From TrEMBL:
Organism: Nonomuraea terrae
Transmembrane segments: 16-38
Protein name per its UniProtKB record: DUF4352 domain-containing protein
Domain of life the protein comes from: Bacteria
Entry keyword set: Membrane, Transmembrane, Transmembrane helix
Keyword Membrane: yes
């Protein structure tokens, strides 16, 4: 049999016009996907406040509070001291005992630390060099510098309020994190601060930005 007049075995399809700009964009998107995907915007550090818990890799850290404390003089020849304190509940998630440490004086030196307090960055407002910081674990057996594996300890980082300086209404700071990996100097993996290369040094990557109100009053 012959096919009906005017029709072919398959229905003819109309060509669809595609704008040149759309074709170029689609092609570029395909090439980008093939080479590893679109560049993603870096995630903003997590904003945290009082009571929040932060996973820092090596440490699990609860932000307890910031407060002003008064330390009474032990005798008449000394003077009372006032401190602004940052209080944390810190759990060492590693297999070794760690020291509390202190925040680095310079940001470009911070990446060398694996201590808890070494992960505190850019504390604002700034305190004078004589003001501290002083950092320790508070326990029933007395203050110590040790963070034992699997144990949650109360860590206090404090700055002295010199003279008649008024305490701030709030205190803010950034926190870094740690990862267990090798580096070019050592084939054995170890805990190191997450950092990115910046010239001839490294700068810590900010895991979270923290703001805490400063509570007035209280004795140390």
């Amino acid at each position: 049999m012959t096919e009906p007049s005017g029709e072919s075995p398959e229905k003819r399809r109309r060509p669809v016009a595609v704008p040149a700009a759309a074709l170029v964009a689609f092609t570029a998107f395909g090439i980008t996907a093939l080479l590893g995907g679109l560049n993603e915007t870096p995630e903003e550090p997590e904003p945290l406040g009082q009571g929040a818990v932060l996973d820092q890799g090596l440490y699990s850290t609860k932000l307890v509070e910031s407060r002003v404390t008064l330390e009474r003089a032990e005798n008449r020849f000394e003077e009372d001291k006032r401190f602004v304190e940052l209080v944390f509940d810190v759990t060492n998630k590693g297999d070794e005992t760690r020291t509390v440490g202190v925040p680095a004086q310079k940001l470009e030196q911070a990446y060398l630390s694996d201590s808890f307090a070494g992960s505190l960055l850019k504390i604002n407002p700034a305190f004078g060099e004589e003001a501290g910081p002083f950092a320790f674990v508070r326990s029933k057996g007395g203050d110590t510098q040790q963070l034992h594996p699997g144990v949650t300890s109360q860590v206090i980082v404090r700055y002295e309020l010199e003279g008649d300086r008024r305490p701030p209404e709030k205190i803010s700071f950034e926190m870094a994190s740690f990862e267990f990996r090798t580096d070019f100097n050592n084939e054995l993996p170890r805990w190191m601060m997450v950092a990115t290369e910046a010239g001839d040094s490294y700068l810590p990557e900010v895991k979270a930005r923290v703001t805490l109100p400063v509570k007035k009053g209280g004795a140390a």
